Amino acid sequence: MAKKKKNIILVIPAFLIMGAAVGLQTKDVIKQTLVGLIVGVVIYFFLSYRNKKINSNK
């Protein structure tokens, strides 16, 4: 069985790009991009904490 890659860091640029796309539609690119960046960082830390907690139980 192949070892799973840990690509959790890719959550941050994904939310950044989603925020930029929403910003283009609402004519507020900078604000929405920053919101996307902040949300991406928060979700990254949440997922990394959750994964550490799950892996420590095994």
Structure, explained:
The protein is mainly alpha-helical and 58 residues long. It has a domain at 27-53. The chain has helices at residues 11-26, 29-57. The chain starts with 10 loop residues before the first helix and ends with a helix. The model has no long low-confidence stretch (mean pLDDT 88).
How is this structure best summarized?
The chain is mainly α. 78% of the residues lie in helices and 0% in strands. Helix 1 packs antiparallel against helix 2.
Helical residue percent?
over 70%
| Rough outline | elongated
Low-confidence stretches: none
Straight-line N-to-C gap:
18 Å
Major sheet details: none
Give the rounded overall mean pLDDT: 88
SSE pattern, N- to C-terminal: HH
Q: What is the alpha-carbon Rg in Å?
A: 15 Å
Q: What share of the residues does DSSP label as strand, in percent?
A: under 5%
Count of DSSP helices?
2
Number of strands: 0
The helix/strand class is mainly alpha
Oligomeric description of these chains:
single chain
Helices and strands in order, then pairings?
Blueprint: H1 11-26, H2 29-57
Helix pairs in contact: 1-2
List keywords for this structure.
single chain; 58 residues; mainly alpha; 2 helices; elongated
